[in-house]
């Protein structure tokens, strides 16, 4: 029959394995369901910009041509797996609320136009920060299209490795405890 010390060690190992499994399950559910959506997107590379007429969210022919070029670039490596961040800007000629709505409408129209050009909507993030928080360049009547930093993809690889290392460490500690008791 096992001694109370052995039973405690086995219970400890089981609890650590359960904890590691739950952490891994929680991690996967937040990354798959977009649980980190309240984290601001991190633009990495500017792919292009499209420009609008004053106080308009309609995509012009010239902008549509530029969107064709951008969509082609987003469908080819190394960008074909990257998430796309769209940031809209307004003319700053109306009130703050109206400018914010116009900037978002421009970004929404751009996202829909990219979808029609073969970019999956699940890859697209519309950056809805107020213009005062976003980086501003000259020419406020535009939408900037970025790819997202790949730090999230690297984190997707590192976390399961850390959980595996943690579980193996707990098993090694349990083996040392069992050897000392015997």
Architecture blueprint of SSEs:
Elements: H1 4-32, E1 43-51, H2 61-74, E2 84-88, H3 96-116, E3 124-127, E4 142-148, H4 151-181
Parallel strand pairs: 2-3
Antiparallel strand pairs: 1-4, 2-4
- Helical stretch tally: 4
What's the SSE pattern?
A: HEHEHEEH
* C-alpha Rg (nearest Å): 25 Å
Share in helix: 40-55%
What is the approximate shape?
A: elongated
Distance between the termini: 13 Å
Q: Strand share of the residues?
A: 5-15%
Q: Write down how many β-strands occur, each being a DSSP E stretch of 2 or more residues.
A: 4
Chain-averaged pLDDT? 76
Q: Low-confidence stretches at least 5 residues in length (pLDDT < 50)? A: 24-38, 133-138
Strand order of the largest sheet: 1-4-2-3
- Biggest sheet details: 4 strands, mixed
What structural class do you assign from the helix and strand content? Answer: alpha+beta
Which structural traits does this protein have?
182 residues, alpha+beta, 4-stranded mixed β-sheet, 4 helices, 14% strand, elongated
Can you give a write-up of this model?
The structure is a single chain. It is built from 4 helices and 4 strands. Helix 1 runs antiparallel to helix 4. It has a 4-stranded mixed beta sheet with strand order 1-4-2-3. Helices cover 52% and strands 14% of the residues. The protein has helices spanning 4-32, 61-74, 96-116, 151-181; strands at 43-51, 84-88, 124-127, 142-148. Helix 3 (96-116) links the parallel strand 2 and strand 3 (124-127). The model is unreliable at 24-38 and 133-138 (pLDDT under 50). The relative contact order is 0.19. With 182 residues, the protein is an alpha+beta fold.
